[in-house]
């Protein structure tokens, strides 16, 4: 098979063919936009946040591969990444990372000063997450903080304020992110132990399924509390009931800790975000 072109390699570097990271980042941002607006948000903000989510997730993938390029070759799942095979050089990756950040920042400039200020924290979180895997067994906690930062930014952009109740959504999403990324880390646990990469899957050990279940319960409980704070109705809570059933299905999938089943459970979280968004959108529409 001929090697990919430079353009194809750059698309691979930003996981253009694997949009699950973008959707997992996008769903909670859409929850926040809809709740902040009390229904359909401003169209310009919707476009800004959808594009910004794609750009920031792409930037996160690039800096992740830059941080892990000396280890990825030792892990089966990541041994074919462009920075490992040499189809993209580190300097090209750094240039792409800065370009993506700059494009995202230009988008934020079309919002308001409060959202612009919050965007600096988003860059700091997205840039530091990959390096946490070297120093702590809780890198998923940093990822959760990063993947939840779109929530206060959405409220800031739509309302120019940060109501206290938004932090219930933020903490709920953080718990959900740690839960689903632990399932992802369970896929690579054996390889990570060999190369020295830390994760919650390694930290939790044989208690991994129990702690994931507790995180899922915490996520759902906080979302119930958020629904009460924002006076959401039956459609929203129906969405949460379906999300709870999906979380139960994920527990079934990971029961044997089979890597393929754990990865399937991770991917399936896209539906959790989708049904909650559907519940919120329907609740405001009826």
UniProtKB/TrEMBL annotation:
Query: Known EC number(s)?
Result: 2.5.1.39
**What gene is behind this protein?**
ubiA
GO CC terms for this protein? plasma membrane
What membrane topology was assigned to this protein in its record?
Multi-pass membrane protein
Which cofactor is essential here? Mg(2+)
Record-given protein name: 4-hydroxybenzoate octaprenyltransferase
Write out the catalysed reaction. Answer: all-trans-octaprenyl diphosphate + 4-hydroxybenzoate = 4-hydroxy-3-(all-trans-octaprenyl)benzoate + diphosphate
Q: In which pathway does it act?
A: Cofactor biosynthesis; ubiquinone biosynthesis
- Which CDD domains has this protein been placed in? PT_UbiA_COQ2
